[in-house]
Amino acid sequence: MSKVSLIIPTYNERDNITPLVERIHKALSGNDYRILFVDDNSKDGTAEIAGSLSNKYPVDVLVRKDKRGLASAIVDGLERVDADIVAVIDADLQHPPELLSSLLEALDNGADIAIASRYVPGGGCEGWNHIRRIMSKGAILIAHLLLPSTRSVKDPMSGYFMFRKRGVTDAKLNPLGYKILLEILLLGNFDKVAEVPYIFRTRTKGESKLNTRQQVEYLKHVYSLMRRTGELWRFVKFCMVGGSGVGVDEGMLYLLAGIGGLRPVELASALSAETAIISNFTLNDIFTFRDRRSPGVKAKLNRFWKFNLICLAGVGIKVGVLSLLYNFAGMHYLLANLVGIAVATLWNYLLNTWVTWR
Ligand code: GDD
Ligand code: MN
């Protein structure tokens, strides 16, 4: 029998606390568990209700005086719980407590973290309109694009999950906003990640606290995670390699057309461009994406062709952007070219992290 500590963030959830605790108690009957509510000084008496339940159920309450947000509430909670297994669940019953036993089962079957997921077969969202769906998928796409190690997880935005606490003992958690799972996944150490489907229910009592501010904080959080996980530095390296490619291109063109007298000059330029692509590929492979290479000559050749094709498309994008800005927006061609280079660099980076060094 495993002991489970549940951490539940609350802000003005008065009417949800009692049914929540009752349902958790049922779901985890036969298990040794303890609930810790981390309340950010709710004005509606949430903490008092939670505290009064401690006669009957294994409930603790931590009240923080200045509201500091959902994700940081979980981090504060983590410092206070002692079980080897920790579960995080919202208080508003949108996360069905009955799933706790399935999450526990996933851990028993060898997972180090089990995520309640809306985006694996069997999962979903109740009563969401198109806009909410698109926003949710958009947020996931941003994480998948910019934080490559989240790509294997279908619902990295989930706020409902269970994990072995040893996975975060060395992690320096410092999240912003709502997405505590993203922080834990990226900075923690979990060999096996499992996703268990669930339906995100509509809220019946109280109100959601999610607003534009949290959405802006999400972007800041992704940026901060890019910085802390080294992904930002990877992008800088990629840009540095790209810059070196300009030097290689110019130098080779001078060698071929200037010293060697090769004509037509277009042929010389095409050859020098390919030289730069080869040099960029080699540098990126040993410098930028060293940790993301699969071994073997065949795999390397494979990466090389992919890199070539993506960069070729990148040239098309650069020229296209220049043409649009120059012909239709009246921008100076040199400035338009710079914007084109920026867009193509982003394209090259995202596609190459997605396809070449996956
Ligand atoms: N301590 C504390 N401090 N708790 C908070 C705060 C806060 O500032 N803001 C919200 N909470 C609590 C709420 O009381 C609720 O228990 C839980 O955090 C989720 O807040 P909601 O406002 O209901 O968020 P949501 O339903 O839009 O989104 C939730 O579910 C998504 C799907 O799983 C969040 O958990 C998201 O992270 C998650 O993606
Ligand atoms: Mn909610």
What do these coordinates show?
The structure is a single chain. The chain is α/β, with parallel strands linked by helices. The protein folds into 2 domains: 3-229, Alpha-Beta Complex (Spore Coat Polysaccharide Biosynthesis Protein SpsA, Chain A), CATH 3.90.550.10; 231-356. Helix content is 53%, strand content 12%. The chain contains 11 helices and 9 strands. The strands form 2 sheets. A 7-stranded mixed sheet has the order 3-2-1-4-7-5-8. A two-stranded parallel ribbon has the order 6-9. Helix 2 (46-52) links the parallel strand 2 (32-39) and strand 3. Helix 10 packs antiparallel against helix 11 (333-356). The longest helix is centred in the last third of the chain and has 32 residues, at 297-328. The chain starts with a strand and ends with a helix. The relative contact order is 0.09. The mean pLDDT is 96. Guanosine-5'-diphosphate-alpha-D-mannose binds next to strand 1, strand 2 and helix 3.
